[in-house]
Amino acid sequence: MALAAELLERALFTFGRVTTSAFRQDMENGRARLDFRRPENRQFWLAGYHYLRSLIRKGTYRTALEWAKLLYALDPSDPYAIRHYIHVLALRAYESTWLVEFFEQMDQLGGGHHLHPGDNYLRQSLVLAKLQGNDRNSALELLRRGVQRVPWLYCALFQELNLDAPPSIWGIKPPTDTSSFWVKMYIYQTKDLWNNAQATTLLQQVTQAQGGGGNKVDASSLAAEDAAVDLGSARLAYLEGQTALLAVTPRHLLDSQPNYEFDPLPPPEHDNIFTGEGTQLPWRERRQQSEGGQTDELLARMQHLLAQRDERARRAAAGTPAAAEAAGLGMMNNFGGDDIDDDEDDEEIRALRAADDAELQRDIDAHMSWGNEPGILGTLMRMLGVTVGPTNRGEDEDEDEDEDGGDTDDVAPGAWPEES
């Protein structure tokens, strides 16, 4: 751990050394921006995320909060879903006033709507912020609204805290897989923050008061409010590596390719901004693998067709009339075309088959000629002047010896030459 933390600090120090003075000034003023669509910029986010985790393990929550603010400010789209760390770190660093202002600013930027997917769950931490600021009445009102809006979250929270859920929210489960993801993500981050006497007492008071008349929260009309899981949140779940969290992460995001340790779950290829050949290598390797699979399939088909042609030729040579007629028609492009009725074999069909056979034969010849061409190694050796393949050097030497020796063929093998 100590070595990993030191390497992270060195990496971040290197990033700082290569930045310009104007960028550092913008960073101090909160105006610095990095485009996440550029692959070379994503290395900074990855190093910053791991350094953030290192600071949390050390218990330096205020420093970790400042790093979370920086990573969030660099790209407003929040590609690493750092917002899921900001509300937790703000509470651990006793920055409850700043957290309230942060959510108010997000409301203004969102224009009355949630700025990011899952923000509705993050706002439940405002209850803890109000409690931390000794504003119990505001916390009570916020909690009452939260129970009405996301009752399945608080039902799961009761279970995680080993508390008996009251009848008002008992048995309410997340209605969709998306809701399950946001519930798992929030509880994974904030379970320890809710596990205190002040918070649990308020939880039991509000939920029991709402179920006092035997009324249960109606969750049927709330399922459509959750936004789909974004790629940034899936990337955060992947980096966290928690089994329970990965189990509810959408598979189409988690299994997307390419995916590397140095660039986890990058954006789709068309969303990237490439500035060099090296940044395109992950997508180029994937295309080559895909093309290689198609080439193998095509080669297998051609080998099968060649085997069929050879079989027909052998049968035709044996004198079978039906085989001779099939061989005269040539190799058919459709595997199921051998059983066509004689009534349908008119001139038009024969012409189409002949055209298909000719086109397929050209493809086969082109493939065979491509396979006989020298490879990269042979071309390089020929450029360097190294002779490749069989040579006639031995034959030339034998011819020279025959010309010089004259009648050497008359001498018996192993005999001494006659003296002149």
Automatic annotation (TrEMBL):
GO CC terms for this protein? RQC complex
Q: Where is the composition biased (Acidic residues)?
A: 395-410
InterPro entries named among the record's database cross-references:
TCF25/Rqc1
A Gene Ontology biological process noted in the UniProt record is: rescue of stalled ribosome
Q: Where is this region: Disordered?
A: 387-420
Name of the protein in its database record: Transcription factor 25
The species this protein was found in: Claviceps pusilla
